[in-house]
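Troubleshooting: if your tokenizer reports a length mismatch, compare your output against this known-good record of 51 residues.
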Amino acid sequence: MTLLFLLLLSIKYGRNPREVTQKLILMLRLTKTKQAMGLSLEMRMVLSLAV
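Known-good structure output:
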């Protein structure tokens, strides 16, 4: 559900869905825990799309 939401966001902001998916996979590999720097993984993904 979250991944679909993020892909829809990527399309809305003109990002390449494949690029976004690869970025999310990379973030999942780098972030082994649910919490990192005080933010949940999902929030970090959403924020990464906004940059």
